[in-house]
Amino acid sequence: MNRPDPAPGPTPPARRRPHRVYGVGGDPDIRDSLANERTFLAWVRTSLALVAGAVAVSSPALEFSMTARLVLAIGLLAVGAAGIGVGWHRWMRTEIAMRTTSQPPGFTGGLLFLVAIGGLLSAALVISIVGHR
User: Fold this and answer.
1) According to DSSP H, which parts of 8-65 are helical?
2) What is the phi/psi pair of residue 61, to 5°?
3) How confident is the model over 56-109, as pLDDT tens digits?
4) Cβ distance 100 to 24 under 8 Å?
5) What DSSP designation does 13 have?
6) Rounded to whole angstroms, how far apart are CA atoms 81 and 48?
7) Of 82, 74, 81, whose CA–CA distance to 111 is shortest?
8) What's the burial of 2, exposed, middle or buried (CB within 10 Å: 0-12/13-18/19+)?
9) DSSP label at 24?
């Protein structure tokens, strides 16, 4: 026996996860919520690219010393993992701000992420220059 589909409507708050995000305020404009989600996915893509960079740096085909490869690979992995955490935290704070019509979060996490990537790029450049002398 075929059952009719349930009537479309908002998902009950008790079933939407994470509860600490969807349990506050009201639903924002769906376009804003989807834009926030796309921003989170951009953080994930960037973090995955850093993990791919860690794999590339650890390759013996590069003329880095074993210590340099290890330091750069671990640094890239750490910044990639931190990037996913920053993206998730920012998504939650932005979603809550939209739901409660409060101020959106600042860009402190993103700024720290950029500084960490800049430090790793600078280290790779120095290692490359010193290694080719």
Assistant:
1) 19-22, 30-57
2) -65, -25
3) 998 888 777 888 889 899 999 999 999 999 999 999 999 999 999 999 988 888
4) yes
5) G
6) 9
7) 82
8) exposed
9) S
